Queue: 3 jobs
Job 1
Amino acid sequence: MKIANIVVDVASSAIDSIFDYEIPEELSTIVKPGVRVIIPFGPRKVMGFVVGLSSNSDHNKLKPIESVMDVTPLLTKELISLSKWLQEETLCFRVSALQAMLPAAFKASYEKELWLLDEIDEYPEAWQQVAQGREVFPFEDLEQSTIPVKEVKQMIDQQMVEVKYVVKGKEKVKTNTYIDLNITEQAALETIEDMGKRAKKQTQILEYLIDQDAPVKLNTLLNKMNTTRATVNSLLKKGIVRKEEKEVYRDPFQKKFEKTTPLSLTKQQQEVIQPIHQSIEDEKHQMFLLHGVTGSGKTEVYLQSIQRVLNKEEEAIVLVPEISLTPQMVNRFKSRFGDDVAVLHSGLSVGEKYDEWRKIHRQEVKVVVGARSAVFAPFKKLGIIIIDEEHENTYKQEDYPKYHAREVAKYRGEYHNCPVVLGSATPTLETYARSLKGVYQLLSLSNRVNNRALPDMEIVDMRKELEAGNRSIFSESLTEQINKRLERNEQVVLMLNRRGYSTFVMCRECGETIQCENCDISMTYHQTKNLLKCHYCAAERPMPKQCPSCQSDAIRFFGTGTQKVEEALKVQFEQARVIRMDVDTTSRKGSHEKLLDRFANKEADILLGTQMIAKGLDFENVTLVGVIAADSMLHLPDFRASENSFQLLTQVSGRAGRHELPGEVVIQTYTPEHYSVTLAKDYDYEAFFHKEMQLRKRFGYPPYYFMVLVNINHENHVKVVEVSQQIANILGGNLSKEAILLGPSPSPMLRIKNRYRYQCMIKYKEKREVDLALREVLKHFQKQINQNEIQITIDFEPNYFM
Ligand code: ADP
Ligand code: ZN
Ligand code: ZN
């Protein structure tokens, strides 16, 4: 017997194993590892992923597979093994790992249908009304009717009706309608004669089709002939023309890219590209860190490494942070490699993403540029993986599977014997430490191309501004510098880092802040709607006119939002044209690109934005970068706060003076003496690294230890304390002395969505023993987890500790 090993599309620890199904004879040629199938599972039908085939099973009486959803496998053998590795590494469900590798369009949708088994007029009036002549209709229609559940059950028992579960993929291929002659040219000419003057439009269409000698897109035909569908339909009815549907890709770009040719590399670029090329030629896996200051020409190194790979008929993955998937970055790849490039990012619609993915799957492209999940691109002959701005925390996925793209890239690099290049001006401490130890090979670009100077950075102490009586958002110096740019018709980029900043509401009389009712967190003020919103549970409430605690009307919102800065700019720099970029102005599709295009076309003098403008932008006319408040993220309860600040300051200053005109940077801060500020000013990554490493060593943080955060939550406060303590006991009993167990302790945010949250933290050196200990915990609480009583989340190398 032929048997398929199947991962079932149900995310539950009780079902997180592989099930065997019989492959019916008629499906035996198409059921292969990597296809999705529909299988009976208990009373339902569900989707499943075939992950293997076998000829015998430990179970007898296997159920047969019902149908196959894919003609060709979606997943390669490599990706199937990778999903198992992800399951083991991140302790997620296998099905979550498989799903993470595919675009959302492949998620199954489950529908419940009602089938009438008799003639419609055999049914009571009420049933006929719901059915409206249909023999099959959505079960929902029945639920919304007045028919009682009892009656439905009776009908089922009497075998009058049947409830069926249907599973469908959501993927939809887009098609265009084409019209072509359905008769010979000779016959068409005769038809034209016959119709004579009576049907002028119809004869015109036929003449056009004869002329074209190929199918014509319906829309084009209607436009060209200036006619309606009705005319075409009458030709269709007579059988003179025919209609066909042709599959097309949705094109998110809809523009032509100007071809670029490789630049002649600088001496430094030549030096760093050599070992990468060597690794490509030798087909030898190697991890590289390309440490290059902003504007040092890293991208050209990527482009020319990819060219090498393409010359060998192999394929390339380039990961860039979502935030810098700006048209500018995409353009550079599209311009060099043209139609060989697919692009994957969250700004695309589900359909567009599905189409870009299919281009990869069908091997119609050789390069993918994309955000984190593009690391799973189903290429078969990978020749290089590049991760640009490797320090960005978006490379770690916050949902299950909580993987880091760097580790997945390493897995795939080993599998394909190809290099993985991590690029950054400010690598993470972990990565840089590995490169100093020789685990990654370090490649350095210490100068900007053509030795352009890095912009001068001025640090402004905002406490002194206040002392001097300047209550404006802008310091004397920043004001002066902006004015200079306005006079010279140069452009300014202003960044307001909102991370860690909150525009919360506070009473100036009694200090009361407005908290969310479900979560222990201040609500955020949204000016456009004059509403307070909770960013955790999405609860909303109107902005109160009086303090709910003391009834004072001195209730205001605090913190500086981009809107507020924009208003201040308008007051202080009347003639300046400002473009504001933040979540509010970029939520609509394509708006991000439009705003940047306008700025590039010099339709504005100042680009004001959140950290989304810190990265990847390259405008020749920008000569000043201002940071409104550098320390807003310095005070987060996070051991990476200094590192993140240093990275952000370095990145944003890299936006100035990238071309002919020299650049300057002004950084406003309340803590000018902090080393992440002073060392960013000197562009001294090395010094920052060593300073920060000392602190990490002293407090036992990464890269000296690995970390895993275990979060436990439950509706009941007492219960969560009890369970957390039990978990700590189990962990303690299973870990060696080398590992450090911290907790249980309340999470910094004790309550979210009405659930209480506690956590345990493990600092460790040996992952295996931690995995085993955590598996013990999951096993012990499996029942309560499945009943959704308690929730336990496990996050290796967490980005957030809240
Ligand atoms: P990075 O990615 O390191 O920030 P870029 O690749 O954006 O740097 O390069 C900065 C600028 O220098 C770009 O405008 C790029 O076109 C240019 N550039 C890069 N390499 C060369 C080269 N070898 N010769 C001339 N210009 C170059
Ligand atoms: Zn809330
Ligand atoms: Zn008050």
Job 2
Amino acid sequence: MESHVDKDFKGRQTKDGIRIHERSDFAGMHEAGALAARILDDIADLVFVGQTTGAIDKKIEELVEEAGATSATIGYKGYKHASCISVNHVVCHGIPGDKTLKDGDILNIDVTVIVDGWFGDTSRMYVAGRLPRKAERLIQVTHDALMRGIEAVKPGNTFGDIGFAIQSFVESHRMSVVRDFCGHGLGQVFHAPPNVLHYGRRGTGATLEEGMFFTIEPMVNLGRPETKTLADDWTAVTRDKSLSAQFEHSIGVTADGAEIFTLSPGGKFHPTFG
Ligand code: MF3
Ligand code: CO
Ligand code: CO
């Protein structure tokens, strides 16, 4: 994600160009985050063997429209869909289409909506048919890695503390963290400073402050961390064809921790264990 400091910005921001939001801004983020999460709840039953990823995306587009919201991804840098759907060894930015899901496929569905000018960005994992044991382990570790990252969020900690929490946990399970994509600041924009790395060293990077809004969205591979982008210029896959998983929340830093904007209203964030 590109990162630049907006020189014309009027409100408060850090020297790294990270916007510090007001308490009153949290409400808008909760509205947007809740819609994105509710849409991911509502399409869960559409993930089954024989289904196409294009049909799931069409339903997501309809749900965004029915809610009177706007898709942040349709028209973003030429992207044409309301979601990214990344199956098996696709790391992220999978393009929905005619491909049908097979028994044992795992997929990440990533939705970003705009509600009253605020962005809600979240993704989670789904399974078609029976979940293979090694995929189950990957999904569990990736989910728990995101949660470890969120637990590291509080004023005075650094972005490096978040990356360290995620990387050390993932590598303790002999899996790898993708380096080529990161989380990002968001709010009244889709992608803003900082780049939120999912690896790093304790105490490095910018210091967290109350009022920062950003995503944490670790991508974890069963094999090596390297990725490559396919000829469509979007689809990122693992170079070694190993299985990859991702979970994403949008969060805000509070006085003593974090608020998650994209909590699942139905408690369906985690695909298998609640
Ligand atoms: N939602 C993705 C993210 O987490 C970005 C998708 S951009 C798209 O940042 F154009 F590929 F949809
Ligand atoms: Co994101
Ligand atoms: Co996303």
Job 3
Amino acid sequence: MAMSSTKRALITGITGQDGSYLAEFLLGLGYEVIGMVRRSSTVNFERIAHIQDELTLASGDLLDEGSMIGVIAEHRPHEVYNLAAQSFVQTSFGQPVLTGDVTALGVTRLLEAIRVVDPDIRFYQASSSEMFGKVVEVPQTELTPFYPRSPYGVAKLYGHWITVNYRESYDLFATSGILFNHESPRRGLEFVTRKVSHGVAQIKLGRATELRLGNLDAQRDWGFAGDYVEAMWKMLQLDEPGDFVVSTGETHAVRELVEVAFSRVGLDWEQYVKVDEKFYRPAEVDLLIGNPERARSVIGWEPKTSFTDLVHMMVDADLEQLSRAEHRSR
Ligand code: NAP
Ligand code: F7E
């Protein structure tokens, strides 16, 4: 394959929320973007449909190291962003072994593929605030000790440490972005923010009468995914790899999220929200709040979207999407 001087990035997890925003962002910078996609019985390219013509899609799976060696050897990216994972905490309790295989060991397989094919590649690992779990310090920084509370959190911790280990053992440019929760209208429907924004829109349009949720007391540091992908790219443009917390520095309870979302459409949440223990977790992460100071000072990154604007954006998008679908079906 003939190589041009254009910068090339490989994104695993391109069909996911962050993959789609990162691909848009890198295309905007003039990158050639290769997206690794796994085989499925139906096509699930909704999030990248609008940019699909500008992308190169390559078949591979984090469970299959050979497939990633093949993708990297064929496309020779300068940067690899590992966004693929089994990313839903609740599912990780029911499928702990799969979660470990994909979300933990998958990172080693990808790092090995890079080490074997081209150790000059710059690598980004999508680490998570879930690694802080039952927090031992408030707010959390790059130096806060970890205490994961789910198989997902444990798997991400492995992914984080193997990234650090490949940096130290083989001198790879391997960076770990410790991102706190980030959301958008493209968030999966199972995550609480989107479940709420979609539920509110359905209730407003008369298609549902209640919204069943779990723990309303949990607190999270929620930002906008569109802002956060820029931090990923900035980390890979530094002279040295490292670890960076990316967060807003604010925390809000699920109850507040619900209040803001329902009031956006003029409804009182207490009349519609029912607590259902089915959505409780065997071990909960009660409070997350990150200190983004190092990201601000070292990579020059700051969040641009407030919590209220984020929730409004998501409710408005779901209302619009559901109303459009209603019109089409008439
Ligand atoms: P997401 O929407 O769940 O996307 C996950 C992606 O991983 C999808 O493209 C999925 O492909 C792909 N994938 C799953 N298993 C795979 C496998 N075996 N091989 C190859 N690809 C596979 O997740 P997200 O919210 O965009 O998050 C991106 C990354 O950041 C994840 O690693 C997540 O754990 C991490 N993270 C997320 C947050 C957050 O708040 N969003 C915070 C911290 C860290 P399919 O479409 O085929 O399922
Ligand atoms: O839960 C509570 C739930 O599933 C947030 C992933 O992107 O961020 C995400 O993980 C909180 C929890 O996200 C419901 O108990 C209440 O305390 O939206 P979530 P998460 O578990 O924080 C991290 C940083 C990641 O890395 C992950 O990949 O909300 N909650 N009621 C509920 N959660 C859900 N899903 N559904 C409920 O009905």
